[in-house]
Amino acid sequence: MKTKVLVIADDPSFEFWLQDAEGANLETVLISGSDPSDLLKKIEAHSRFSLVFCEFRNANAMLRASLVEQLHERHLHVPIVGLGDNASADCVLDAMRAGARDFFVRGRDDDKLGAQIARLLKRSAATAATAAPAKAGRLFLTLSGHPHESIAFFAEHLALAIVERLAPGERALLVDLATPSGAAAIFLNLNPTYNVLDAVNDAHRCDQTLIDTAFPKHASGLYVLSLPEDLLGRAQFDAEQLLKLMQVLRGLFAVTVIAIDGHAPVSAVAGLVDLADRSLLLSDQSILKSRHNKYLLRSLRAQECSLERTSLVVDNYRRRLGLEPRNLAELFELPLVSALQTESFNRILSMNSGEPLFTLAKKDPYCAGIRELAGTLLSGEMKVSTPPQGFLDRILG
After folding, report:
1. Contact 163, 221 (CB under 8 A)
2. Is residue 133 reached through a cis peptide bond, with omega within 30 degrees of 0 on the bond before it?
3. Is 389 buried (19+), middle (13-18) or exposed (0-12) by CB count in 10 A?
4. Each residue of 75-85: pLDDT tens digit?
5. Strands of the 102-105 sheet, one edge to the other
6. Cβ neighbours of residue 261 under 8 Å, at least 6 residues apart?
7. Using CA atoms, how far apart are residues 160 and 267, in angstroms rounded to an integer?
8. Which single residue of 47, 126, 206, 224 has CA 20 to 30 Å from 356?
9. Whole-prediction pTM
10. pLDDT digits over 173-220, tens only?
11. Residue 134 has pLDDT above 50, yes or no
């Protein structure tokens, strides 16, 4: 039985080149055109194709890269391969950055073309068979304007609480991009050799095999990608590559929890907010963090980033501090979803020991609050009411 593949090329001879590949046994469909939107419509008219080949030339490299990116998002597990008449470094780089698995060059790869295609199809079938979940997983973002260890601590416990509620065979991932660097891995007593910056660089080849061989895993079953703990200053990464990685990971995990703060590029934070199913702004009752969160929200709104799926979580809540959670929600113009309380001694002990509060101090109110929040997120029943306007804008500036 022949394998159906799509060939996106202006030069029809590429179709014949692939048909003649020894041992490949391909049913090829040639699709021509330049506009990515029109090409996508033509591609979507076909069903059950196993591979997509896309011709790249210097003159059309940017348009082809855009097509590959959009196609990769829609058909995550279908391999996309660049084609060319020469191994132009720019064309190859554009194709691979956009999400192509490989790049075949006519004249150079003639003798091994069939074997290369067979290898790609075999890997694709294995990935599709083992990928979980079958549909796109959910993504929950935790963010804060002021860098603080409480961000990773909160995200860690939220991810662990989500793991407790997942069905057998479903998996969760924690991505800690917040500072201090590496906090989540330290709090979970992990010593990773592979970090989130490595994963961003490997976005084009991130698959089940890479996860199984490289991603750090906690005893609870939670996978963890964190910044390297010896990183000084702010992390340097490409925002577009990060978002591309998140799209890939969304297809490989049932739930992904991301932690980030105002030290990251605003474009990256805005992109993650747009991508996330739900975003949680983490604040406490201090003037400093409240102001920094207000500035972060102001920057996101200036980027025309929608905050309709964003809610407020007040951390380490204490009565009679003045800045009550509902007042903070009023300031940020966000619905309040949770006010978490904890014993300070337990929190520090948990951070230092590498043990989550769920095992170290089960009766700490933080555990019940986080578990309730995890259930709310997974159920999709988030509060949507907007607090009334009031006096805090005058107090906090």
Report:
1. yes
2. yes
3. exposed
4. 877 889 999 98
5. 26-31, 3-8, 51-55, 80-84, 102-105
6. 143, 144, 145, 146, 147, 148, 151, 177, 178, 179
7. 28
8. 206
9. 0.66
10. 999 999 999 999 999 999 999 999 999 988 877 888 889 889 999 999
11. no
For the record, the structure tokens of 332 come out as 């940020």
Q: What angle do CA 87, 88, 94 make, to 5 degrees?
A: 110
| Residue recorded with tokens 């983490």 | 282
Residues present in the chain in total: 397
Task: Kindly report the three-state secondary structure assignment for every residue of the chain.
Answer: CCEEEEEECCCCHHHHHHHCCCCCCEEEEEECCCCHHHHHHHHHCCCCCCEEEEECCCCCHHHHHHHHHHHHHHCCCCCEEEEECCCCHHHHHHHHHHCCCEEEECCCCCCCHHHHHHHHHHHHHHHHHHCCCCCCCEEEEEEECCCCHHHHHHHHHHHHHHHHHCCCCCCEEEEECCCCCCHHHHHCCCCCCCCHHHHHHCHHHCCHHHHHHHCCECCCCCEEEECCCCCCCCCCCCHHHHHHHHHHHHCCCCEEEEEEECCCCHHHHHHHHHHCCEEEEEECCCHHHHHHHHHHHHHHHHCCCCCCCEEEEECCCCCCCCCCHHHHHHHHCCCEEEECCCCHHHHHHHHHHCCCHHHHCCCCHHHHHHHHHHHHHHHCCCCCCCCCCCCHHHHHC
Q: How many CA atoms lie less than 13 Å away from 19 in the CB half-sphere?
A: 10
What's the rounded Cα separation, in Å, for the pair 360 and 376?
24
| Burial class of residue 42, CB neighbours in 10 A (0-12, 13-18, 19+) | middle
**Residue owning tokens 């294995």:** 126
**β-bridge mates for residue 310, sequence order:** 279
> What's the rounded Cα separation, in Å, for the pair 150 and 75?
37
Peptide bond into 180 cis (omega under 30): yes
**DSSP bridge partners of 226:** 176
Residue 130 has pLDDT above 60, yes or no: no
CA atoms within 13 A on the CB side of 13: 4
Q: Which backbone phi and psi does 255 adopt, to 5 degrees?
A: -140, 135
CA distance 276 to 48: 29
The structure tokens 């041992």 sit at 23
Q: CB–CB of 312/325 below 8 Å?
A: yes
